[in-house]
Amino acid sequence: MARLLQDPSKFHPSEWHAANRMQRASTESQKSRSECVVAESWRLVDEIEKTTQKTQSDVNKKIEQRREEIKFWKQELDNKLEQIAHETDVLFTFKNRLERALESCKEPLVVAQKCLLYRQRRVGIDLVHDEVEQELLKEAEVLQGIIALLGRTLKQTNEQIRQNRAAKYNLDMDLKDKFTALTIDDYCASLTNDTSHIVYADNAMKLEGNFVSPEDWIDFSNINVEKADKQRNNSLALKALIDSILSQTANDMCKQCEMVNIAFRNRVKEVKDAKHKLETLLAMVMDEIASQEKNIAALKKAIADKEGPVKVAQTRLEARNHRPNVELCYDTVQCSLMNEVQEITKNIQRQDALAQAETELKRLSCRQLSLEEDIKVKEHTLYIDEVLCMQMRESVCINNY
């Protein structure tokens, strides 16, 4: 109890003053440090603000640069898309021209083949491998070659249209991506620190997806542009080729068609001349037949006219054979009568002229039949060439598509 009532230990006044000094020094030191921290904080805040503003300004500039870059490539892609689309549309018209030209070749080929079949119906000596047949065969060959060429060119055109569409598709896809990217960057450019709907995005720093380098990005669009240019140039070259082919094939068809028609006209004229000559010969033969028939009739009449004289001579001889005795004399009368009978009998028996005339008449009749048959052959040939073939060929129309 006594200890409890004992006064606690007391500090010396010097200690009290020392404690106060230390407290003041510590406080002043802490205040100084705090002021330094505050100053440094303000400096840091100011520095961060300036850095943030500079960084944001740089980002804004880069976004603007990127937008201009995207706009540039978008314009390039738009131009190439318009060009390739135009070339594809034009190439479609060339394709239609090829299809019409190909279709127009079918009728002339059918006509040429029909002419060859019709001309196989010629008969006799007129079934000849003449110039008309040679030109018709050449025409069929030319048309078949043209059809094959146009078919190959049409396939090439379809393939080029496919290539153009592929290039156009790549441009379309690239343009859609560029439009989306530009829309996003436009949105990013519109954002400010005061925009109401901006939020923290914790995952924004994660690089998800297949990021490409700026060089690869440029190369991608550049490749699409180069492919479009290549296909456009290919289309231009193909159009020039198609123009040349259509012009040349039309000229070849017209030229060969005219060659066939000239050959037909010459052949028809030749056959008509031959027919006219045969008809002239037939008329000559008919006249000769009439003349020979008259000759035969005259020969027969001459032979018939000799029956009276021979009868008279033979009757006289028969009567004089009854002369009596010495009167049965071989006198000059008897000799003359004998000679007369022999001469007349010999002339009657000599029918060489009549036989020869009848033989000639038979030959002339055979010649008549031969000429008539040949004339019919020529008429049949003229019907085939002039009526069937040439009239059918009038329907052939060759256009330069």
Automatic annotation (TrEMBL):
Its main location: cytoplasm. The keyword 4Fe-4S does not apply. It comes from the Eukaryota. The keyword Isomerase does not apply. Residues 1-34 are annotated as: Disordered. GO terms for biological process: cilium assembly; cilium movement involved in cell motility. GO terms for cellular component: axoneme; microtubule cytoskeleton; nucleus. It holds the Pfam family Tektin. It is found in: Cytoplasm, Cytoskeleton, Cilium axoneme; Cytoplasm, Cytoskeleton, Flagellum axoneme. Keywords: Cell projection, Cilium, Coiled coil, Cytoplasm, Cytoskeleton, Flagellum. Belongs to the tektin family. This is Tektin. The lineage of its organism: Eukaryota, Metazoa, Chordata, Craniata, Vertebrata. The gene is Tekt1.
